[in-house]
Amino acid sequence: MTNETIDQQTAEDGVWITTPEGDRIPNYEATFPDITEGQVVSGQVVRVDKDEVLVDVGYKSEGVIPVAELSIRRSINPADEVNVGDHVDALVMTKEDAEGRLILSKKRARFEIAWKRIEQAAETGDPVEGKVIEVVKGGLILDLGVRGFLPASLVDIRRVQDLDEFLSQELRCKVIELNRARNNVVLSRRAVLEDERKEMRQAILDRLQPGDVVDGTISNIVDFGAFVDLDGMDGLIHISELSWTHVNHPSEVLEIGQQVKVKVLDIDRERQRISLGLKQTQMDPWQQVLESYHEGDVVEGRVTKVVTFGAFVEILPGVEGLVHISELAQHHVENPREVVAQGQAVNVMILEVDADRRRLSLSLKRVADGVQPEPRPDGAESVHLTPHLDLSEDVFKDDGPSAPVAEVPDEPEAGVESDESIAADEADLTEPGPGDSDGSPPEPPPEEPE
Predict the structure, then answer these.
(1) CA separation, residue 209 to residues 205, 248, 259, 269 (Å)
(2) pLDDT value, residue 421
(3) Does a structural domain hold residue 117?
(4) Is residue 120 part of a domain?
(5) Is the Cβ–Cβ distance between 429 and 411 less than 8 Å?
(6) Looking at residue 374, what DSSP letter applies?
(7) Does residue 114 lie in a domain region?
(8) Does 415 reside within a domain?
């Protein structure tokens, strides 16, 4: 070898090295890339085993990715994650372990890349996209390169009953909470959907006016009412606007997914809230009273409650009137339970109709024997068979089975009622004056000729 050749090789910095014996040999180490722990490197998958994957990253030995470092998913099959020939990014965990191996992590490389992307999305408000990989208590887990948690309440605008239907779906969500120290990412798909529907909601608000009757779908039921999806925006039916009759809980009259027709009662355009009414689209039983009944009419009804100052009688569904204790019988009555019992079917006379306050004053004692009540305007079956008609069974032979007579509980003897129960009744209702539920005096009965 000439001096010129040696000088040329020496000039090739790092390619040749001199051994302790003075021999010059190629510097193979210099041909390997400079790798440090924590660095993200790229390579090609050369082998896939059940517990690890080998990757050629151009180093002196293949890098090893243990199965636990392949994916953020749990209990995976390496063959489902990568194939021989795939190009992957991996983070250098250990440059040389006890066996001289280069230990890599594919999931940590994805984590570092993904975290930067998620941080940027959180700053700008842009959505991120990930695949649902698990359904857990309280929500969903999305694969964003990191594990992102999507609470159940933020999966959709309306509450989702079955989270399993989202498994393996790609979802777009906004980042609402980010904590690098805890590797915690909280997401909201609802925020994305609300942004998409914002223009639609504004169009709905611009279109609707108080008094409009619209169709909707029950989207949620709560103790104080029900929410109705108006094809892009929810409105609230307060429990007091559900029915003309008393409702203990909205679930008594509605169920999620039910199609309803509602009336727009009020619109708060600034707060984007719509108040709806369901009972306003139904027949008002009080309107039936005003159209069909008059003062002096005898009507049928059923005793709904007995109190110390009288008894309440329902003459139509949702319409009750008060029979004051002074109107229960011709004789003096100490305890209303001497005369009537809850659930008893009775005929009563209408003394007064107060349409403005929706109050009825009724009388039991003014109903003469044998007087037939007015026909029911709602077409419903009579609450009882009119007594003392002395009709044979032949009258009803062509009409099918007769209506059952309502069972009337045995009336307690006068004075049997305990002081505690009477005190409870008085606590429930403040005693009005004789005549009606508001304390107006009744018209005196006509004097009988001597």
Answers:
(1) 8, 30, 21, 11
(2) 41
(3) no
(4) no
(5) no
(6) P
(7) no
(8) yes
